[in-house]
Amino acid sequence: MARVRISDVATAAGVSTATVSLVLNDRVERISPATAARVRQAAAAVGYTPNTVARGLRTQRTHTLGLISDTIATTPFAGRMLAGAQDAAREHGYLVFLVDTDADPKVEEKAIRALVGQQVDAMIYAAMWHRVVEAPAGLPTGTVFLDCRPSGGGFPAVVPDDRQGGVAAVRELVAAGHRRIAYVDVAEDEPPVASGLRHQGYLEVLAEAGITPDPALHARGETSAAGGCAAVGRLLDLPADRRPTGIFCFNDRMAAGAYVAAHRRGMDVPRDVSIVGYDDQQLVAGEQDPPLTTVALPHYEMGRWATEVALGVREPPREDSTHLMPCPIVRRDSVGPPPTAA
């Protein structure tokens, strides 16, 4: 099928090709509204679509954005980052090219070359969880790092403010009257960046509340419901005078395991023990009984921020700085006052 040309639109509208070009490029200062409307109606009637390749050659802009990720596209947990990026790009007239590399360096290298070859106007390098990464070779200047930050700096980045997220979680328990508060952390072998930051927030709130940290209340386990169940089980088996009445879990899956550990011991949430999670993970946090109070990871907001900075419609604090996105508390029904006996 032959491509509809600008001359076809001019014939249908009864005007010159120069007039059609001006109208379709929104340069209508010297063209009457009636003529501009007739040209647009004719373009729609004959099915004209602009040649983006030719337009890109003229303007040196392709109105495309490249987003390279490890496993975001295949992970519903982090898919909100992609949604935020796509929404921001669409609002500014850009199309997102997504490449999910499955963390394969060779695929990543080819993807960077391909996107640069396609002359994308901007690039985002994203990770599924907060971590420090080595910046791959070949990334264009101005690439924005999303949910990760480059070890050597040099690029703008956005990550969740995990320390303040930990502060928000533990303050929720302190505000409810808890003094014996546990932190259920991940296993010690190669813990993620967020593990230490959330622990710092935990210790900060204990200090401001005048609570001496008890090392026995810093438990570790696998980042799963089973891991949380095992770690919280050990905490709940402590003597009554050392057993926690409030528990802050590294993530919502571990918090789901904490519910199981409590129920197996005939304990009620939050009557006997209060639990706070982290992530606000879909189909996990809100589906517990009672629904879990947790801290939300701002995936959508980070995706928007990264895209707006990459497109130049938002200025980062500094060209190579890391922006900490707030992690708000999401209050549900898993926190109450400590049991009277405590």
Molecular structure report:
This protein starts with 5 loop residues before the first helix and ends in a 12-residue tail after the last strand. Helix 7 (162-175) packs parallel to helix 8 (193-208). A six-stranded parallel beta sheet has the order 2-1-3-4-5-11, with helices on both faces. It is built from eleven helices and twelve strands. The chain folds into three domains: 6-50, no CATH class; 64-160 and 299-324, Rossmann fold, CATH 3.40.50.2300; 162-297, Response regulator (Rossmann fold, 3-Layer(aba) Sandwich). It is α/β, with parallel strands linked by helices.
User: What is the CA-atom radius of gyration, in angstroms?
Assistant: 26 Å
The side-by-side strand order for the widest beta sheet comes to: 2-1-3-4-5-11
Contiguous runs where pLDDT drops below 50 for at least 5 residues: none
CATH class label of the largest domain: Alpha Beta
The tally of helices reads 11
N-to-C series of helices and strands: HHHHEHEHEEEHEHEHEHEEHEE
Give the helix/strand class.
Answer: alpha/beta
Average residue pLDDT: 91
Enter the CATH topology name of the largest domain. Answer: Rossmann fold
CATH level-4 homologous superfamily of the largest domain: Response regulator
How many independent structural domains? Answer: 3
Helix content: 25-40%
Strand content: 15-25%
Distance between the termini: 79 Å
Overall 3D shape: elongated
Would you identify the CATH architecture of the largest domain?
3-Layer(aba) Sandwich
Strands, helices and their partners?
Blueprint: H1 6-13, H2 17-24, H3 33-46, H4 52-59, E1 64-69, H5 79-91, E2 95-100, H6 105-117, E3 122-133, E4 144-150, E5 157-160, H7 162-175, E6 181-186, H8 193-208, E7 218-221, H9 225-236, E8 246-249, H10 252-264, E9 274-276, E10 294-295, H11 299-311, E11 322-325, E12 329-330
Parallel strand pairs: 1-2, 1-3, 3-4, 4-5, 5-11, 6-7, 6-8, 8-9
Antiparallel strand pairs: 10-12
